[in-house]
Amino acid sequence: MKSISTYENKKVLVVGLAKSGVAASLLLHRLGAFVTVNDWKPLSENKEAQALLDEGIKVICGSHPVELLDEGFEFIVKNPGIPYTNPLISGAVEMGLPVLTEVELAFQISEADIIGITGTNGKTTTTTLVHHMLNAGGKRAFMAGNIGTVACEVAQEASEEDTMVIELSSFQLMGIKEFKPSIAIITNLYDAHLDYHSSKNEYAMAKSAITKNQTKNDFLIVNADQPELLELVQDTKAQVLPFSTSRKLEGGLYVANGSIYYNQEEIIRIQDIVLPGAHNLENILAAIGAAKLSNIENEAIVAVLTTFTGVRHRTQFVREWQGRKFYNDSKATNSLATKSALAAFTKPTILLCGGLDRGNDFDELLPYLNNVKAMIVFGQTAQKMKELGEKAGISIIKKVESVKESVPSAVEISEEGDIVLLSPACASWDQHPTFEVRGDIFIEEVNRL
């Protein structure tokens, strides 16, 4: 960890707790700042805030009072989930106060090299693949960021010989000032999080911020199958390494003749890759690019790709039981993700879907239901999903109360050779606090068989 004096004897307000807020508060306290923490949850119900009080950190809970801005803070560190429309945050911006997220703190103290990964889909899979490839190739790599481990915690442990592989959301990237990965990846760009961002352009600009501080000595790995993405990053100073699943590239990564190539060098036959789904080829290409730029040998890259079966809750292979293969794709909280999951399979599929009703329909899934022989639907959107299945001409559609009940129902309907796929196309919040909890219930029931 670098020793910095940026925050020494400075008044810093941390807005919002959860894991990132707690880690940022403790780090700033360690760096000599006068830290005040503000969280909406009342102190009596807020174990995290109580623990910070025990560390001697000032805590204000129960609301986000704008009057806090009168206390002369010099920096604001914001939990990524708190929108910039929050009056406390918008007020700080109007006053010209720096509003940061904890990944900026991580960069400021990190001795380790940083690989940063963003995009609408595939971030977690790509981050995990890069992490595995680096470790398989003899480097010590740490995963951090939006994937679950707070970056500024990891940065305190990683040495200059290590690499931090950080998954970055648009929310986190909006709060960077100097953050600069030596290798940046943008997997793809689609409409998303428009309830947080004011427009698709704001969302796109947040994603492109991953490369804004890069120099000619850095690298940007980018999806060349999206012209709008190439245009978005056309002003980058980094060396661009493009990847494509649809065409050969002279200097980049591509798929041709059933293999993956890096700068005309064959890396691996696609048939040897264990991770299912055409959509995962993008993630694999991007990860190979980061590994090759990190001087990882092909042998280590191939070893990962021939054993890695997927990230938990993301088209994750759970088990085979009596000739049926069960996959957990609970992370599919929208139609786009479910389309990708359905496109990964050609065998007869039992689709388990449904969840929080956000008011949208699901007709965009219709072209992807050709291999779906039956649907098990649940949650607030159960009726909408039933109607979708009827439109698609699916003859077997069964309503159940929950994911837990969907497993025995799928077993009853399925036959040897079938795929049983949990890919809800909806958020979990109607019945479960997170998609992880929903996926864990599915895994538990499958393992009971």
From TrEMBL:
Subcellular location as annotated: Cytoplasm
InterPro entries named in the record: Folylpolyglutamate_synth_CS (IPR018109), Mur-like_cat_sf (IPR036565), Mur_ligase_C (IPR004101), Mur_ligase_C_dom_sf (IPR036615), Mur_ligase_cen (IPR013221), MurD (IPR005762)
Pathway this chain belongs to: Cell wall biogenesis; peptidoglycan biosynthesis
Record EC number: 6.3.2.9
Gene Ontology molecular-function annotations: ATP binding; tetrahydrofolylpolyglutamate synthase activity; UDP-N-acetylmuramoylalanine-D-glutamate ligase activity
CC per GO annotation: cytoplasm
Record NCBIfam families: murD
Protein name: UDP-N-acetylmuramoylalanine--D-glutamate ligase
UniProt source species: Jeotgalibacillus soli
